[in-house]
Amino acid sequence: MPKRGLDVCACEVFRFYRLITIKDLVEPLSMIVPRKQSGTFQEDLYPMTAGNQAAMTAQEWLLGINRGQESWEQRLILGLRRYFSVDYGPQ
Fold first, then answer.
1. Which residue among 1, 14, 35, 72 has the highest number of C-beta atoms inside a 10 angstrom radius?
2. How far apart are CA 30 and CA 49, in angstroms?
3. Domain assignments of the chain as residue spans, ordered by start
């Protein structure tokens, strides 16, 4: 499950799926961090993560161009769409 599919208001940090072959079922299992105020966004649980768009094309990469990846905050799930570009400096 990609990070953008997690329930950040419930402090869900990981979700995976268990296959039950006997009953032909797929059961979602969530890893949730217990918090006193789980209804708000927890900044320490969700650091910047890789975005869903490539920073450059394959042709640019073959030409030797070096760019940082597109990153985004998981607040995006709550409706705040802000993209950030990470600069790793000279390589």
1. 72
2. 19
3. 3-85
Helix (H, G, I), strand (E, B) or coil at 5: helix
pLDDT tens-digit profile, the chain (91 residues): 677 777 777 788 888 899 998 988 999 898 888 877 766 677 777 777 777 778 888 999 899 998 887 776 766 655 543 444 445 455 4
Q: What is the DSSP letter of 14?
A: E
pTM: 0.55
18-25: long-range contacts, CB 8 A cutoff, minimum separation 24 = none
Q: Where are the alpha helices (DSSP H) in 11-73?
A: 58-62
The residues with which 15 forms a beta bridge, in sequence order, are: 30
Q: How far apart are CA 55 and CA 45, in angstroms?
A: 25
